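Case study B.
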Amino acid sequence: MNQIVTISTGQLLLALVFILIAQASSFIYHLGLNRDITIGTLRTFSQLFLMGYVLTFILKTSNPLLVMSVFMVMVVSAMFIIKGRVKEKQIPYIIPTFLTMLVSYMATAFFVSGLVIGMTPWWEPRYFIPAGGMVIGNSMSALAISLERLFRDMRQQKELVEMKLSLGADYREASLDIFRNAVSAGMIPSINAMMGVGLVFIPGMMSGQILAGTDPLIAVRYQIVVMLMLVGSTAVSSVVVMLIVRRRCFGSGEEVLLSPH
Amino acid sequence: MPPLLEIRNISFAYEGSTALVFDRLNGSVQEGEFILVKGPSGTGKSTLLRLICRLNQPQGGSILFQGRDITSIAPAKLRSAVSYVAQIPQMIDASVKENLLLPFSFAINAAKPRPGTEELTEMLQKFYLPDLNLDQSAMKLSIGQKQRLALMRALLQKPLLLLLDEPTSALDHESASMVFSIMERLNTEERKTLITVTHLDYKPETVRPLTYTLAHRRLNRLL
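Model:
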């Protein structure tokens, strides 16, 4: 049972049948997706193989500096994705968000790899990189949602916030509801994932482990660690980023800096 | 005794604009005065009030409240003493009572005496809102009723200076005269210091306000 069945190149190409089906559907029904499907397929192959080679190299050399560089590249990429989604020009949020991501993801990946799984060294790439990748990927979406919500609500509710300020509220009191909504909007997807896991869907990591021959009960334990890690890291990074960025929405006189669109 | 409020050489331009709204503007307010600032829209009347309570920051000059530069006063402390009522009244999605008691949910006002139901009901009468129920939702009120509630709410935290930004601009004639009569009474009976800006040709009946116009980026006294 623990035998890993490898996929030969021929078998891999056989899987392209699925793409042919998708292409045929697009062609018959004029969905206009043929070009995107082709590009998507090529990118899937090239990006994943590239990553495979990089990971093989990293696992072989096991150099902490290299592991940290890969981690850094992942965080920087995540930051760019967030920047692309959160269209905010007035309030500088990128540097605090980036630093919070770096510190909190590093702490989470260290906690999981070094303490929960108990790897020595703690940066053992086989655990540290996938753990880091999952935390970054998940929390990145949460941060993008939270930031978008924060800026949107601060703009839409500017008059309400100013009314509270005018009645003696400090900036925290005046924006308490907006802050709460922004943080919880980011956290809800990972909490919902905890509700549906195992019933509605089998998470990718667990499926991968099972396909690779791991005992499902061991895979389950890993998956539980991952789910908890994702909720925790999302909570910490969202709260910290929202605290810092919210302050930046106010000036030195605790006045609202965002102007309505 | 320093004046209650002193404006010294204030210059202001909106963010991203080089056009000055105020150019070395000066003015002062003594305790108990009723100041009326008139002028067409777009001359910066609202901005002047917003600068006094720091909802906007000037590019130059300084504003002193009780002799102290307002930038050296904690913003929440300043705003509980200098209360600004916006042109469009804002209510939280809650009852009339919760809206009126909102200032007391903020740390700066926590030690101030909280009005009881009886006091609030009495005040509603004085503000021409006798039919209002303290438990009804504030969101469904007319804009005229909301404006009077907003005024009441600002007064409940016992400010030393009240800044009223076009308090009647969104109101019909009847509601507007109610608000004007409340303002005048606040000044004559309760000795409140008020600065009201308006683009209307309002002539108070019971008080003689100090009237200014805003023109050429300065305040000009009307005699």
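The interface with chain A takes residues 15, 53-57, 71, 74-77, 79-80, 83-86, 88, 90, 92, 102-103, 105-109, 150, 153-154, 157 of chain B (CB under 8 Å). The remaining cases will be described in the next quarterly update.
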